[in-house]
């Protein structure tokens, strides 16, 4: 049965590719922790083994909860339109990021297929993250237990639904029980300005529209969401 479904999806993806459509998919990489838990090394801080003079460091993690560990299919973590990995319960990874702004999106799909072109099955969360060299950021994804306000973040934990930029005190109390996801440890570059303006046009429908999203001193900015886009884990 699984083989039949896989062959069917492959046929659909091939026909869409031949038609020139952009396909958002994570086929073969979307299995949840119920099927395959993260099996990398236990959490270990990067320390000073990164280019802190010219880049920022970002940890992305998902606490191990009953929800996340019983999940059959995981959501994908995307930066500037590119899927980097699917975020399993109890897993973490990290990236170096060159200074600038990045658009971070969490998507959920069905059997690895997340959308075609501008159509996306479910956009769970989206925020704009501005990073600065020498700084360390912690992005936490969890559907059921949003973090409490902590004084060591400039203002408050900021994000969109289950995706939150959190204080080090929160992250470093949860990261030690996570394991490395077999993706990451790369260096990301911000989108060129021309492409960024095109992205704003797609999301806002008007390249000259005022930016009414919220932001804080930590550099994260959440995109405005309509009532129809309110967060739900499915």
UniProtKB/TrEMBL annotation:
Please list every transmembrane segment annotated in the UniProt record, as residue ranges: none
Show where the DUF2846 domain sits: 53-147
**Which Pfam families does this one have?**
DUF2846
Q: Where is the composition biased (Basic and acidic residues)?
A: 187-203
InterPro entries documented for this protein: DUF2846
Looking at the record, which segments are called Disordered? Answer: 185-234
Query: What's the protein here called?
Result: DUF2846 domain-containing protein
**What is the species listed in this Swiss-Prot or TrEMBL entry?**
Thalassolituus pacificus
